[in-house]
Amino acid sequence: MPPRASWTGNLKLSLISIPVRLYRAVSSSGRLSLRMLHQDCSQRVRYQYTCPVHGELDKDQIVKGYEFERGKYVVVDDETLDKIRLETTQTIEVVQFIDQAELDPIYLDTPYYLSPDGPVAEEGFQVIRKALEKTGKAAIGRVVMSNRELMVAISPRDTGLFLQTLHYQSEVRGSEAFFEGIPGKKVDPEEVELAESLIEKKSEAFDPSQFKDRYEEALTDVIKAKIQGEEVEVVEEREAGKVVNFMDALKRSVAEEEKSGRKKTAAGKKPPARSVKRASSKEKKKEKGGSAG
Fold first, then answer.
1. Which helix (H) or strand (E) is 274 found in, with range?
2. CA distance readout (Å), 255 to 143, 198, 260, 262
3. Distances (CA, A) of 274 to 30, 142, 144, 238, 269
4. For residue 114, which of 52, 77, 47, 159 has the smallest C-alpha distance?
5. Residue 192: pLDDT above 50?
6. What Cα–Cα distance (Å) separates residue 96 from each residue in 2, 154, 226, 251?
7. What's the distance, CA 233 to chain centroid?
8. Which of 139, 172, 175, 259 has the highest CB neighbour number within 10 Å of its CB?
9. In this structure, what are the phi and psi dihedrals at residue 264, rounded to the nearest 5 degrees?
10. Strand 232-234 and strand 160-166: pairing?
């Protein structure tokens, strides 16, 4: 059974309206979360809302506002927000279709799964999904979520639809300012050929299951060790080798890959930044003996 829907409403295409449900495709609930603690007593720090005039406030005393001049605000409460009722408040309105390859990844934001809301909606939903699949198109639309009208892209995925919210162009920074200092010098064709060879030797099908969050795994080990009262040893981080001659470094890299005889990925290895030093049974006995004496 799928989890609770993040949003329910209708998918509207011209005169067609299909009841749908939206589910978050990514979850961060399994990640480690560190809390803010008081250094002296290790009690959790609580945040309080305070007013410079009236002091501490309860949550029900707080409203939202917009600063239109420095230090001057206009209150925008829930009642005011409810008056803004666009046609996309409960409807994903499809505006146009584009080739799926046309969508620049820089605009992609939050991913969702889109499914029909009930048996009555299934036929129309599957017709739209199949048509998108056969044409290789993605639907571009808009919908109101979290008090914002969002631009969205919808494409087929498995037996359902995949919806991704998009950044507006006004939110996306152009690359010119970041790349303007990169000189457009000519490159050595032989170096490019070696780089292509290195890329080819390290190329393989992408399997996301091979990749784990090694930092989180190492942090989990550190936390377990601290809970058990074991020593945590700081490991020296390996310095990256300085490239003196780029051509030489390329040749050695290609040779190294040929020598290994197999492609390697960075997955499955824990970072060298920290490790847990666990005392052996002999060391533990020694410690017990020392404390007894």
1. strand 274-276
2. 53, 9, 9, 12
3. 22, 46, 45, 12, 12
4. 159
5. yes
6. 29, 11, 56, 50
7. 31
8. 139
9. -120, 150
10. unpaired
User: What's the CA gap between 257 and 15, in Å, rounded?
Assistant: 58
Q: Is 100 in a helix, a strand, or coil?
A: helix
**Contact, 232 vs 173, CB < 8 A?**
no
Q: How many helices (H) and strands (E) does the chain have?
A: 7, 13
pLDDT tens digits, one per residue of 123-178: 999 999 999 999 999 999 999 988 789 999 999 999 999 999 999 999 999 888 88
Largest Cα span, the chain: 88
Q: How far is CA 149 from CA 16, 142, 145, 167, 275, in A?
A: 21, 7, 6, 11, 47
pTM, two decimals, is 0.71
How far apart CA 233 and CA 276 sit, in angstroms, is 6
Domains of the chain: 7-29+87-171 (2.40.290.10), 189-292 (no CATH)
The Cα–Cα gap between 247 and 194 comes to 8
Report the candidate in 227, 237, 213, 221 with the shortest Cα–Cα distance to residue 277: 221
CA distance 111 to 152: 10
How far is Cα 176 from Cα 274, in angstroms, rounded to an integer? 38
Cβ neighbours around 152 below 10 Å, total:
25
Inform me whether the pLDDT recorded for 88 exceeds 70.
no
User: For 53, which DSSP code?
Assistant: T
Q: Residue 27 burial by CB count (10 A; 0-12/13-18/19+): exposed, middle or buried?
A: exposed
